[in-house]
Amino acid sequence: MDDWEIVAPMGDSRSGRLSESHEEHKNEDDTTGIFASLLIPGRGDPMKDQAILCSRKTGKIIYVGLSSRIPPKYYNVHLEKIPVVMPGMWECHAHFMGASPNKPIDFVNLALTSPPEAGARNARVIKDTLYAGFTSAVELGGYATELQRVIEEGSILGPTLYGSGGAISMTAGHGDIFELPYGCSRQKLSVNAPGTDGGAAVVVQADGVDECRKAVRLNLRRGAKCIKVLTSGGVTSRDDRPEYQQLSDEELKVIVEEAGRMGMICAAHAEGKAGIMAAIRAGFKVIEHGSYADDEVYKEMKKNDVMLVATITPLESILDNKDKYPPAMYRKTAELAKIHMAAYRNAVKAGIRCALGSDLFGGPGSVLSPGMNGNEVHLAVKTGGMTPLQAIEAATANGPLTLGPQAPQSGQIKEGYDADLLGLDKNPLDDIEMMRKPKNVKYIWKQGKLVKAPGLDPWDALDI
Ligand SMILES: [Zn+2]
């Protein structure tokens, strides 16, 4: 494709050549150059006419600013002209569990899915997640710890994954499988299982202080970057109730202590108030869902610097697709949805720091398939009442904060940060709904490398 006319974007003849081509120009020094007519930095106000240089060697941003100020050694770098550039987004509540699109999504089916089958499906849905504009994903129960190693080696295309390993659940808790005999449930969803007996790696069942401590260590052994704990019931399993606390204060405290020793923070699946308050008391730094949170909860969250990931996408999807879910799950969700949505809006009003997570856990092409993650950005505005700029900050700059000490420099377009960027044709601040559709995310650079562009075959974007 033709290069742009060699004109100085800021009236400066020194600036790099502009190109409209999506072909990656192989600059000798492995530098990717972009010229953004509008740059949304992740945190802070948008800026016009900015140049961004990234190193494909280090995967970091090396320059952001006026093209007229580009350091002389980069004068020859091609600049790809893109109307709007923003940071790659952070999916902060993912599940890559390998669910089948043709079976009801429940723990029994997940437990009976073999890891190779799950892995093959995951290869598809992590690529879909990346292509929706999510260059990083925090996974809270699933196979991300294993998948990340495969992504890193370059065999498959996906976001950078930060997994928790299996979510820690008490027996008869949100992660138990009530339909199976006790021993079977414990083994099939246990983190002991992967690679040994073919069970799903979604949940670690643990009771008592010693087992809770061990559950953290087992996740660490898999490569966890954070710890997920189910501190209240939820809507996906048969008998549990969102309003009651799950796991005792003593058990929760030992989990936080053990995770903290290894530099990890804890995220709580907490829908009812009792489970939320227990998590905050124990020192958790992220509340997932927060369905029944009230002013007292928000006060404690603020005091203890606890973040919220509200996960509205599945609520909307379940309500819109009654026939595709088990009746008990549908009934519970319908009860919960109104309250949960109002709580989200109140949390935003109360100034609680939010990151965005879509909690998508379905099979490829299903109603809850990862790949529709951008809907949560739209819902942050529609349901949560954020401004579009706040929603983008929640989807980008706030994402890494959910990892505490494990947070990488990411989610903002700043020198030294991960060179994960999105190129858009339109300004999402004018039309946030556009983020729902993966096709509106035209270009994606992950660690400085172009991985999505019109006409680019995803296989060609792989490193090996
Ligand atoms: Zn979840």
Automatic annotation (TrEMBL):
One GO MF term, please? hydrolase activity, acting on carbon-nitrogen (but not peptide) bonds
Q: Which residues form the Amidohydrolase-related domain?
A: 84-451
Database matches in SUPFAM superfamilies = Composite domain of metallo-dependent hydrolases, Metallo-dependent hydrolases
**Region listing for Disordered, in residue ranges:** 11-30
Cite the source lineage: Eukaryota, Fungi, Dikarya, Ascomycota, Pezizomycotina
Basic and acidic residues: bias regions: 14-29
Q: What is this protein called?
A: Amidohydrolase-related domain-containing protein
